[in-house]
Amino acid sequence: MNLSQIIEGHDGNSTALISRGRSTTYQQLREQVGSMRGALVRRGVQKGDVVVLLCGNSRYFIVSYLAAIGIGAIVAPLNPTSPAPEIENELHVVTPTVAIIEPSAYEAWKNIPSVTTSAVRIVIATEGHVIEGAETIDEFLTGDSAAVVDVEASHPAVYMFTSGTAGSPKAAILTHNNLLTNIRQANVAEHIAPTDVVFGVLPLFHIFGLNVVIGTTLAGGACLVLVQRFDPVSTMETIAERGVTVLPGAPSLWAALGQLDHESPHVFSSIRLALSGAAKLPEQISQSFSARFGLQIQEGYGLTEAAPVVTTSIGMEWIPGSIGRPVPGIELRVVDENGGDVLVGDSGEIWIRGENIFAGYLNDAEATARVLTRDGWLRTGDIAVVDDSGHLYMVDRAKDLIIVSGFNVFPAEVEGVLSAHPDISEVAVVGTPHPHTGEAVRAYVVTRNGIHLDEDAIIDYCRTKLARYKCPSKVLFVDSLPRNVSGKVQRYALR
User: Fold this and answer.
1) 483 has which bridge partners?
2) CATH 3.30.300.30 for the 401-494 domain, yes or no
3) CATH superfamily of the domain spanning 197-397
4) What is the pLDDT of residues 335-358, one digit of tens each?
5) How many CA atoms lie within 13 A of 128 on its CB side?
6) What is the pTM of this model?
7) CATH number of 3-151
Protein backbone atom coordinates (compact mmCIF):
# COMPACT_ATOMS: atom_id res chain seq x y z
CA MET A 1 0.00 0.00 0.00
CA ASN A 2 1.00 3.62 -0.36
CA LEU A 3 -1.06 6.73 0.43
CA SER A 4 0.33 8.54 -2.62
CA GLN A 5 -1.71 6.32 -4.93
CA ILE A 6 -4.88 8.30 -4.17
CA ILE A 7 -4.23 10.22 -7.42
CA GLU A 8 -4.27 7.06 -9.55
CA GLY A 9 -7.23 5.95 -11.65
CA HIS A 10 -8.84 9.35 -12.22
CA ASP A 11 -9.54 10.80 -15.67
CA GLY A 12 -6.22 12.23 -16.83
CA ASN A 13 -7.90 15.18 -18.55
CA SER A 14 -9.78 16.26 -15.42
CA THR A 15 -8.39 19.22 -13.50
CA ALA A 16 -6.76 18.18 -10.24
CA LEU A 17 -5.37 21.52 -9.06
CA ILE A 18 -5.76 25.21 -9.73
CA SER A 19 -2.90 27.18 -8.18
CA ARG A 20 -2.11 30.84 -8.89
CA GLY A 21 -4.39 30.69 -11.91
CA ARG A 22 -2.60 27.65 -13.36
CA SER A 23 -4.49 24.39 -13.91
CA THR A 24 -2.88 20.98 -13.47
CA THR A 25 -4.68 17.89 -14.79
CA TYR A 26 -4.54 14.52 -13.05
CA GLN A 27 -2.27 13.21 -15.80
CA GLN A 28 0.11 16.16 -15.39
CA LEU A 29 0.05 15.75 -11.62
CA ARG A 30 0.91 12.07 -11.88
CA GLU A 31 3.79 12.88 -14.24
CA GLN A 32 5.17 15.62 -12.00
CA VAL A 33 4.92 13.45 -8.90
CA GLY A 34 6.61 10.57 -10.72
CA SER A 35 9.44 12.82 -11.92
CA MET A 36 10.01 14.17 -8.43
CA ARG A 37 10.08 10.63 -7.03
CA GLY A 38 12.79 9.84 -9.57
CA ALA A 39 14.80 12.97 -8.75
CA LEU A 40 14.67 12.23 -5.01
CA VAL A 41 15.74 8.60 -5.53
CA ARG A 42 18.64 9.61 -7.78
CA ARG A 43 19.85 11.93 -5.00
CA GLY A 44 19.86 9.09 -2.51
CA VAL A 45 16.63 9.77 -0.60
CA GLN A 46 15.39 6.49 0.85
CA LYS A 47 12.49 4.95 2.70
CA GLY A 48 12.40 6.34 6.24
CA ASP A 49 14.21 9.59 5.43
CA VAL A 50 12.45 12.75 6.60
CA VAL A 51 11.44 15.47 4.14
CA VAL A 52 10.52 18.82 5.67
CA LEU A 53 8.05 20.98 3.74
CA LEU A 54 8.17 24.71 4.42
CA CYS A 55 5.56 25.54 1.80
CA GLY A 56 2.23 27.31 1.69
CA ASN A 57 -0.85 26.30 -0.30
CA SER A 58 0.72 25.64 -3.68
CA ARG A 59 1.21 22.99 -6.33
CA TYR A 60 4.75 22.53 -5.02
CA PHE A 61 3.47 21.41 -1.63
CA ILE A 62 1.19 18.74 -3.09
CA VAL A 63 3.70 17.39 -5.64
CA SER A 64 6.45 17.24 -3.01
CA TYR A 65 4.18 15.61 -0.44
CA LEU A 66 2.94 12.87 -2.78
CA ALA A 67 6.40 12.23 -4.22
CA ALA A 68 8.10 11.92 -0.84
CA ILE A 69 5.59 9.54 0.71
CA GLY A 70 5.54 7.68 -2.62
CA ILE A 71 9.15 6.52 -2.07
CA GLY A 72 8.53 5.72 1.59
CA ALA A 73 10.02 8.92 2.97
CA ILE A 74 8.28 10.66 5.87
CA VAL A 75 6.97 14.19 5.39
CA ALA A 76 7.06 16.80 8.16
CA PRO A 77 4.95 19.80 7.06
CA LEU A 78 5.94 22.99 8.90
CA ASN A 79 4.48 26.47 8.91
CA PRO A 80 6.58 28.51 6.42
CA THR A 81 5.73 31.76 8.19
CA SER A 82 6.98 30.60 11.60
CA PRO A 83 9.95 32.46 13.12
CA ALA A 84 13.37 30.83 12.91
CA PRO A 85 13.50 29.65 16.57
CA GLU A 86 10.21 27.75 16.22
CA ILE A 87 11.32 26.07 12.98
CA GLU A 88 14.66 25.26 14.58
CA ASN A 89 12.95 23.50 17.49
CA GLU A 90 10.82 21.43 15.11
CA LEU A 91 13.85 20.48 13.01
CA HIS A 92 15.52 19.14 16.15
CA VAL A 93 12.51 16.87 16.69
CA VAL A 94 12.22 15.39 13.18
CA THR A 95 15.91 15.52 11.98
CA PRO A 96 15.24 15.86 8.23
CA THR A 97 17.37 14.79 5.28
CA VAL A 98 15.59 17.03 2.77
CA ALA A 99 14.07 20.51 3.10
CA ILE A 100 11.79 22.00 0.46
CA ILE A 101 11.38 25.72 1.05
CA GLU A 102 9.22 28.44 -0.46
CA PRO A 103 10.11 32.18 -0.50
CA SER A 104 8.17 33.15 2.64
CA ALA A 105 10.44 30.84 4.66
CA TYR A 106 13.77 31.83 3.09
CA GLU A 107 14.76 34.42 5.71
CA ALA A 108 13.79 32.17 8.61
CA TRP A 109 15.81 29.32 7.14
CA LYS A 110 18.88 31.52 6.72
CA ASN A 111 18.65 32.53 10.41
CA ILE A 112 18.64 28.95 11.70
CA PRO A 113 22.09 27.95 13.04
CA SER A 114 24.06 25.79 10.62
CA VAL A 115 24.58 23.17 13.32
CA THR A 116 20.83 22.49 13.09
CA THR A 117 20.61 22.42 9.29
CA SER A 118 23.88 20.56 8.70
CA ALA A 119 22.12 17.17 8.62
CA VAL A 120 19.94 18.37 5.75
CA ARG A 121 21.72 16.97 2.68
CA ILE A 122 19.31 18.38 0.08
CA VAL A 123 17.76 21.86 0.13
CA ILE A 124 15.23 22.61 -2.60
CA ALA A 125 13.99 26.15 -3.25
CA THR A 126 10.58 26.40 -4.90
CA GLU A 127 11.42 29.57 -6.82
CA GLY A 128 15.03 29.86 -7.84
CA HIS A 129 18.41 29.60 -6.09
CA VAL A 130 17.70 32.22 -3.43
CA ILE A 131 19.16 30.01 -0.71
CA GLU A 132 22.87 29.29 -1.00
CA GLY A 133 23.52 25.74 -2.11
CA ALA A 134 19.85 25.02 -2.86
CA GLU A 135 18.55 23.32 -5.97
CA THR A 136 15.46 24.63 -7.73
CA ILE A 137 12.36 22.49 -7.67
CA ASP A 138 11.82 22.81 -11.43
CA GLU A 139 14.77 20.45 -11.84
CA PHE A 140 12.78 17.86 -9.90
CA LEU A 141 9.55 18.11 -11.91
CA THR A 142 10.94 16.77 -15.19
CA GLY A 143 12.97 13.68 -15.93
CA ASP A 144 12.63 9.96 -15.45
CA SER A 145 10.08 8.67 -13.00
CA ALA A 146 10.63 6.22 -10.14
CA ALA A 147 8.18 3.56 -9.07
CA VAL A 148 5.96 3.93 -6.02
CA VAL A 149 7.37 1.99 -3.07
CA ASP A 150 5.04 -0.48 -1.40
CA VAL A 151 5.11 0.16 2.35
CA GLU A 152 3.69 -1.52 5.43
CA ALA A 153 0.37 -0.19 6.72
CA SER A 154 2.18 0.87 9.91
CA HIS A 155 4.90 2.81 8.07
CA PRO A 156 4.87 6.53 9.00
CA ALA A 157 3.68 8.87 6.25
CA VAL A 158 3.88 12.16 8.14
CA TYR A 159 5.18 13.68 11.33
CA MET A 160 2.43 16.19 11.99
CA PHE A 161 2.96 18.78 14.66
CA THR A 162 -0.05 19.29 16.88
CA SER A 163 -1.62 22.74 16.82
CA GLY A 164 -0.15 23.73 20.17
CA THR A 165 -3.25 25.45 21.62
CA ALA A 166 -2.39 24.08 25.05
CA GLY A 167 1.39 24.43 25.01
CA SER A 168 4.42 23.30 23.04
CA PRO A 169 3.54 21.28 19.94
CA LYS A 170 4.57 17.62 19.59
CA ALA A 171 5.12 15.58 16.43
CA ALA A 172 2.33 13.04 15.99
CA ILE A 173 3.24 9.95 13.95
CA LEU A 174 0.54 9.27 11.35
CA THR A 175 0.91 6.14 9.25
CA HIS A 176 -0.18 5.43 5.68
CA ASN A 177 -3.03 3.34 7.09
CA ASN A 178 -4.07 6.05 9.58
CA LEU A 179 -4.46 8.63 6.81
CA LEU A 180 -6.00 6.32 4.20
CA THR A 181 -8.48 5.00 6.73
CA ASN A 182 -9.61 8.49 7.67
CA ILE A 183 -9.94 9.57 4.02
CA ARG A 184 -12.33 6.66 3.49
CA GLN A 185 -14.17 7.41 6.74
CA ALA A 186 -14.66 11.07 5.80
CA ASN A 187 -15.69 10.31 2.24
CA VAL A 188 -18.50 8.02 3.39
CA ALA A 189 -20.21 11.19 4.59
CA GLU A 190 -18.86 13.79 2.16
CA HIS A 191 -19.16 11.78 -1.09
CA ILE A 192 -16.49 13.88 -2.82
CA ALA A 193 -16.87 13.25 -6.57
CA PRO A 194 -15.02 14.28 -9.77
CA THR A 195 -17.65 16.97 -10.33
CA ASP A 196 -16.76 18.74 -7.08
CA VAL A 197 -14.64 21.88 -6.81
CA VAL A 198 -13.08 22.21 -3.34
CA PHE A 199 -11.88 25.54 -1.92
CA GLY A 200 -8.40 25.05 -0.46
CA VAL A 201 -7.59 27.92 1.88
CA LEU A 202 -7.01 25.86 5.04
CA PRO A 203 -3.23 25.59 5.62
CA LEU A 204 -1.95 22.39 4.03
CA PHE A 205 0.65 21.99 6.81
CA HIS A 206 -2.27 21.57 9.24
CA ILE A 207 -3.94 18.15 9.46
CA PHE A 208 -7.36 19.56 8.43
CA GLY A 209 -5.78 20.90 5.24
CA LEU A 210 -3.51 17.90 4.66
CA ASN A 211 -5.94 15.00 4.92
CA VAL A 212 -9.40 16.55 4.60
CA VAL A 213 -8.62 19.10 1.89
CA ILE A 214 -5.85 17.29 -0.03
CA GLY A 215 -6.66 13.72 0.91
CA THR A 216 -10.41 13.52 0.35
CA THR A 217 -10.33 15.83 -2.69
CA LEU A 218 -7.67 13.93 -4.63
CA ALA A 219 -8.99 10.53 -3.55
CA GLY A 220 -12.37 11.55 -4.97
CA GLY A 221 -10.90 12.81 -8.26
CA ALA A 222 -12.21 16.32 -7.64
CA CYS A 223 -10.67 19.72 -8.39
CA LEU A 224 -8.80 21.55 -5.64
CA VAL A 225 -8.57 25.35 -5.87
CA LEU A 226 -5.52 26.38 -3.82
CA VAL A 227 -5.59 29.75 -2.07
CA GLN A 228 -2.50 31.19 -0.40
CA ARG A 229 -4.19 33.71 1.91
CA PHE A 230 -7.74 34.18 3.07
CA ASP A 231 -9.55 37.34 2.06
CA PRO A 232 -13.35 37.44 2.38
CA VAL A 233 -14.00 39.46 -0.78
CA SER A 234 -11.67 37.46 -3.03
CA THR A 235 -13.08 34.26 -1.54
CA MET A 236 -16.54 35.19 -2.74
CA GLU A 237 -15.13 36.06 -6.18
CA THR A 238 -13.38 32.68 -6.39
CA ILE A 239 -16.52 30.82 -5.34
CA ALA A 240 -18.43 32.46 -8.18
CA GLU A 241 -15.65 32.22 -10.79
CA ARG A 242 -14.70 28.58 -10.13
CA GLY A 243 -18.12 27.25 -9.19
CA VAL A 244 -16.91 26.02 -5.80
CA THR A 245 -19.12 23.23 -4.43
CA VAL A 246 -17.30 22.29 -1.19
CA LEU A 247 -16.18 24.99 1.23
CA PRO A 248 -14.20 23.76 4.27
CA GLY A 249 -13.15 26.39 6.79
CA ALA A 250 -12.39 27.24 10.37
CA PRO A 251 -14.92 29.33 12.36
CA SER A 252 -12.90 32.47 11.65
CA LEU A 253 -13.60 32.03 7.90
CA TRP A 254 -17.33 31.70 8.47
CA ALA A 255 -17.36 34.68 10.82
CA ALA A 256 -15.59 36.87 8.24
CA LEU A 257 -17.83 35.78 5.35
CA GLY A 258 -20.92 36.36 7.49
CA GLN A 259 -19.91 39.97 8.16
CA LEU A 260 -19.77 40.87 4.45
CA ASP A 261 -22.61 42.92 3.04
CA HIS A 262 -23.88 40.35 0.55
CA GLU A 263 -26.22 41.81 -2.05
CA SER A 264 -27.91 38.52 -2.93
CA PRO A 265 -29.15 35.67 -0.77
CA HIS A 266 -27.98 33.32 -3.55
CA VAL A 267 -24.25 34.07 -3.28
CA PHE A 268 -23.56 30.58 -1.91
CA SER A 269 -25.88 28.78 -4.33
CA SER A 270 -23.07 26.67 -5.83
CA ILE A 271 -22.03 25.32 -2.41
CA ARG A 272 -23.42 21.85 -1.74
CA LEU A 273 -21.28 21.21 1.31
CA ALA A 274 -20.19 23.81 3.89
CA LEU A 275 -17.83 22.40 6.51
CA SER A 276 -16.53 23.86 9.75
CA GLY A 277 -13.85 22.35 11.92
CA ALA A 278 -10.61 22.99 13.87
CA ALA A 279 -12.53 24.83 16.62
CA LYS A 280 -16.06 25.20 17.95
CA LEU A 281 -18.35 27.19 15.65
CA PRO A 282 -20.49 29.78 17.52
CA GLU A 283 -24.15 28.85 17.09
CA GLN A 284 -25.17 32.37 16.10
CA ILE A 285 -22.91 32.19 13.03
CA SER A 286 -24.43 28.88 11.99
CA GLN A 287 -27.97 30.13 12.50
CA SER A 288 -27.26 33.38 10.64
CA PHE A 289 -26.01 31.55 7.52
CA SER A 290 -29.05 29.32 7.54
CA ALA A 291 -31.47 32.24 7.88
CA ARG A 292 -29.76 34.58 5.37
CA PHE A 293 -28.57 32.15 2.69
CA GLY A 294 -30.24 28.83 3.34
CA LEU A 295 -26.74 27.40 3.85
CA GLN A 296 -26.40 24.85 6.61
CA ILE A 297 -22.83 24.72 7.90
CA GLN A 298 -22.01 21.14 8.86
CA GLU A 299 -19.88 21.04 11.96
CA GLY A 300 -17.60 18.15 12.77
CA TYR A 301 -14.92 17.29 15.27
CA GLY A 302 -11.42 15.99 14.88
CA LEU A 303 -7.85 16.24 16.11
CA THR A 304 -4.39 15.67 14.72
CA GLU A 305 -3.99 12.36 16.54
CA ALA A 306 -7.07 10.98 14.75
CA ALA A 307 -5.91 11.95 11.24
CA PRO A 308 -8.20 14.04 11.92
CA VAL A 309 -11.95 13.37 11.43
CA VAL A 310 -13.82 11.82 14.38
CA THR A 311 -17.42 12.98 13.99
CA THR A 312 -19.55 14.59 11.32
CA SER A 313 -23.05 16.05 11.15
CA ILE A 314 -23.37 15.50 7.37
CA GLY A 315 -26.45 13.51 6.39
CA MET A 316 -28.14 13.97 9.75
CA GLU A 317 -30.76 16.26 11.18
CA TRP A 318 -29.15 19.71 11.18
CA ILE A 319 -28.76 20.90 14.76
CA PRO A 320 -26.69 24.08 15.25
CA GLY A 321 -24.07 23.41 17.89
CA SER A 322 -23.94 19.65 17.36
CA ILE A 323 -20.76 18.02 16.07
CA GLY A 324 -22.78 15.03 14.89
CA ARG A 325 -21.89 11.39 15.39
CA PRO A 326 -18.75 9.29 14.89
CA VAL A 327 -17.76 8.47 11.31
CA PRO A 328 -17.79 4.75 10.38
CA GLY A 329 -15.06 2.67 11.97
CA ILE A 330 -14.59 4.81 15.06
CA GLU A 331 -15.56 3.66 18.54
CA LEU A 332 -16.37 6.60 20.79
CA ARG A 333 -16.99 6.84 24.52
CA VAL A 334 -17.74 9.79 26.79
CA VAL A 335 -16.17 8.99 30.14
CA ASP A 336 -15.84 10.43 33.65
CA GLU A 337 -12.61 11.03 35.56
CA ASN A 338 -12.49 7.33 36.53
CA GLY A 339 -12.82 6.08 32.95
CA GLY A 340 -16.47 5.02 33.34
CA ASP A 341 -19.14 5.89 30.78
CA VAL A 342 -21.20 8.94 31.77
CA LEU A 343 -24.97 9.12 31.69
CA VAL A 344 -26.75 10.69 28.73
CA GLY A 345 -26.70 14.46 29.18
CA ASP A 346 -23.67 14.46 31.49
CA SER A 347 -20.35 15.89 30.34
CA GLY A 348 -17.25 13.75 30.04
CA GLU A 349 -14.01 13.31 28.13
CA ILE A 350 -14.15 11.91 24.60
CA TRP A 351 -12.23 8.65 24.17
CA ILE A 352 -11.91 7.16 20.67
CA ARG A 353 -10.50 4.03 19.08
CA GLY A 354 -10.02 2.97 15.45
CA GLU A 355 -7.51 2.38 12.66
CA ASN A 356 -7.15 6.13 12.12
CA ILE A 357 -5.66 6.70 15.59
CA PHE A 358 -2.02 7.77 15.46
CA ALA A 359 0.99 5.64 16.39
CA GLY A 360 2.23 8.00 19.13
CA TYR A 361 4.39 11.08 19.53
CA LEU A 362 7.84 11.00 17.95
CA ASN A 363 10.54 10.20 20.55
CA ASP A 364 8.15 10.95 23.42
CA ALA A 365 6.97 7.74 25.05
CA GLU A 366 5.83 9.55 28.17
CA ALA A 367 3.49 11.90 26.28
CA THR A 368 2.22 8.97 24.21
CA ALA A 369 1.41 6.94 27.34
CA ARG A 370 -0.58 9.86 28.75
CA VAL A 371 -3.01 9.85 25.83
CA LEU A 372 -3.07 6.23 24.57
CA THR A 373 -4.41 3.49 26.82
CA ARG A 374 -3.00 -0.04 26.65
CA ASP A 375 -6.10 -1.24 24.80
CA GLY A 376 -5.88 1.46 22.15
CA TRP A 377 -8.20 4.21 23.37
CA LEU A 378 -7.13 7.79 22.67
CA ARG A 379 -7.86 10.17 25.53
CA THR A 380 -8.64 13.33 23.54
CA GLY A 381 -8.77 15.83 26.41
CA ASP A 382 -11.97 17.22 24.88
CA ILE A 383 -15.17 17.45 26.91
CA ALA A 384 -18.56 16.71 25.33
CA VAL A 385 -22.11 15.64 26.11
CA VAL A 386 -24.30 13.26 24.14
CA ASP A 387 -28.10 13.48 23.85
CA ASP A 388 -30.75 10.75 23.65
CA SER A 389 -30.36 10.59 19.84
CA GLY A 390 -26.62 10.09 19.98
CA HIS A 391 -25.73 13.61 18.84
CA LEU A 392 -22.57 15.00 20.40
CA TYR A 393 -22.05 18.56 21.62
CA MET A 394 -18.60 19.93 22.36
CA VAL A 395 -18.20 21.54 25.76
CA ASP A 396 -14.50 22.36 26.08
CA ARG A 397 -10.95 21.14 26.44
CA ALA A 398 -10.35 19.28 29.70
CA LYS A 399 -7.08 21.13 30.19
CA ASP A 400 -8.89 24.48 29.77
CA LEU A 401 -11.29 23.68 32.61
CA ILE A 402 -11.45 26.40 35.29
CA ILE A 403 -12.20 25.32 38.86
CA VAL A 404 -13.69 28.08 41.01
CA SER A 405 -14.21 27.15 44.69
CA GLY A 406 -14.50 23.51 43.65
CA PHE A 407 -17.03 24.20 40.88
CA ASN A 408 -16.22 23.41 37.23
CA VAL A 409 -16.39 26.27 34.75
CA PHE A 410 -16.04 25.50 31.05
CA PRO A 411 -14.66 28.54 29.17
CA ALA A 412 -16.81 27.75 26.12
CA GLU A 413 -20.01 28.22 28.15
CA VAL A 414 -18.94 31.69 29.32
CA GLU A 415 -17.69 32.54 25.82
CA GLY A 416 -21.05 31.54 24.38
CA VAL A 417 -22.86 33.99 26.65
CA LEU A 418 -20.45 36.83 25.92
CA SER A 419 -20.48 36.15 22.16
CA ALA A 420 -24.23 36.71 22.15
CA HIS A 421 -23.74 40.30 23.35
CA PRO A 422 -24.52 42.57 20.38
CA ASP A 423 -21.38 44.69 20.83
CA ILE A 424 -18.88 41.86 21.22
CA SER A 425 -17.30 40.28 18.14
CA GLU A 426 -14.79 37.90 19.74
CA VAL A 427 -14.08 36.60 23.21
CA ALA A 428 -11.78 34.15 24.97
CA VAL A 429 -12.01 33.03 28.59
CA VAL A 430 -9.21 31.62 30.74
CA GLY A 431 -8.62 30.79 34.38
CA THR A 432 -6.23 32.78 36.54
CA PRO A 433 -4.93 31.95 40.05
CA HIS A 434 -6.98 33.39 42.91
CA PRO A 435 -5.97 33.31 46.61
CA HIS A 436 -9.46 32.50 47.91
CA THR A 437 -11.25 30.53 45.17
CA GLY A 438 -8.30 28.68 43.62
CA GLU A 439 -9.03 30.13 40.21
CA ALA A 440 -11.04 33.01 38.82
CA VAL A 441 -12.59 33.60 35.41
CA ARG A 442 -10.97 36.21 33.17
CA ALA A 443 -12.43 37.29 29.82
CA TYR A 444 -10.59 38.86 26.88
CA VAL A 445 -13.04 40.76 24.68
CA VAL A 446 -12.84 42.27 21.19
CA THR A 447 -15.65 44.76 20.61
CA ARG A 448 -17.46 45.36 17.33
CA ASN A 449 -16.13 48.31 15.36
CA GLY A 450 -14.19 49.64 18.33
CA ILE A 451 -17.31 50.31 20.44
CA HIS A 452 -16.46 51.31 24.02
CA LEU A 453 -17.86 48.95 26.65
CA ASP A 454 -17.82 49.17 30.43
CA GLU A 455 -16.19 46.28 32.28
CA ASP A 456 -18.70 46.27 35.15
CA ALA A 457 -21.60 46.33 32.68
CA ILE A 458 -20.23 43.24 30.94
CA ILE A 459 -19.85 41.40 34.24
CA ASP A 460 -23.41 42.37 35.22
CA TYR A 461 -24.60 41.13 31.81
CA CYS A 462 -23.04 37.74 32.53
CA ARG A 463 -24.70 37.58 35.93
CA THR A 464 -28.12 37.72 34.28
CA LYS A 465 -27.31 34.53 32.38
CA LEU A 466 -24.78 32.56 34.42
CA ALA A 467 -24.24 31.40 37.97
CA ARG A 468 -22.11 33.88 39.86
CA TYR A 469 -19.06 31.57 40.10
CA LYS A 470 -19.04 31.27 36.29
CA CYS A 471 -18.98 35.02 35.68
CA PRO A 472 -15.75 36.84 34.87
CA SER A 473 -14.17 38.70 37.75
CA LYS A 474 -12.07 40.62 35.24
CA VAL A 475 -12.73 41.72 31.65
CA LEU A 476 -9.88 42.93 29.47
CA PHE A 477 -10.60 44.67 26.15
CA VAL A 478 -8.11 43.82 23.39
CA ASP A 479 -7.75 44.55 19.67
CA SER A 480 -7.44 40.88 18.70
CA LEU A 481 -7.05 37.39 20.14
CA PRO A 482 -3.95 35.22 19.63
CA ARG A 483 -4.76 32.40 17.22
CA ASN A 484 -2.84 29.62 15.54
CA VAL A 485 -2.96 29.02 11.80
CA SER A 486 -6.13 26.92 11.99
CA GLY A 487 -8.06 29.67 13.77
CA LYS A 488 -8.00 28.25 17.28
CA VAL A 489 -7.58 30.73 20.10
CA GLN A 490 -4.34 30.05 21.95
CA ARG A 491 -5.52 30.27 25.54
CA TYR A 492 -2.09 29.45 26.93
CA ALA A 493 -0.79 32.68 25.36
CA LEU A 494 -3.51 34.64 27.18
CA ARG A 495 -2.62 32.96 30.47
Assistant:
1) 489
2) yes
3) ANL, N-terminal domain (3.40.50.12780)
4) 998 999 999 999 999 999 999 999
5) 4
6) 0.86
7) 3.40.50.980
